[in-house]
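Sat 14:20. Reprocessing the chain from the morning session after the first attempt stalled halfway. Input below, unchanged.
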Amino acid sequence: MTILDGIEDAVKKINDKAIKLDTIFNESSTSNNDQEIKSLLQSIKKQNQDILTVLDDINKKIIATKPCDQIFVANKQIDNPIGDNINATTPSKDISNFSNKRRSPNSTLYKRRKEISDKHSSEIENFNLAMKEAPESVSEVYYEYENKLKKQVQDFEKKYGKGQLSRISKIRTLQRRGALTSEINKYALSQNITTEQAIAFFQNIIVEKNKSVPWLYSNLAKVLNEYEI
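Finished this time. Tokens:
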């Protein structure tokens, strides 16, 4: 809706109310109602008339200006009744198909990614993270991820691209251990304690419940909720 449409709509609504007030005023003037009520109704009617006058003046000024400019944004047309105040004279670049072009099979980026994927497909699928199969403590998971796994992931993404990480065989285990490591760091920061103390806190959870380390990172969301972490 343009500003002009909005003013016209406001005028119509106020006009409708003004007509109703006229009816009430006329009825009250022929009855024996208190003079104070009649005075109040007359005051409201006057206010309506003043508002209508102001809006009508604004309406006339807008109509008197040059025809509405048009702004084109992402292939959608928007009226600009104000004129050049928002630099509407130069249409903006149409970016509606930008994301589609990037994903198009004919785009250079798409072809490049596909070439990398096809060329290293076997290497990616057989890529083996140097990750301990059955960690015995939370500390072991934490320091392995921080000191070894992060570097392996960085090297992998540098060679094959971030989009290929989901294709490695141990991605779920990697993500779960990464999540546990992240929560240990967050807990240490929120409680103003050392990393070692935070690790000990999570270690005590699996001792208390007589569970394994893999159980902890596989059920991390449930544990965080239970201990209100």
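The chain has a mean pLDDT of 75.
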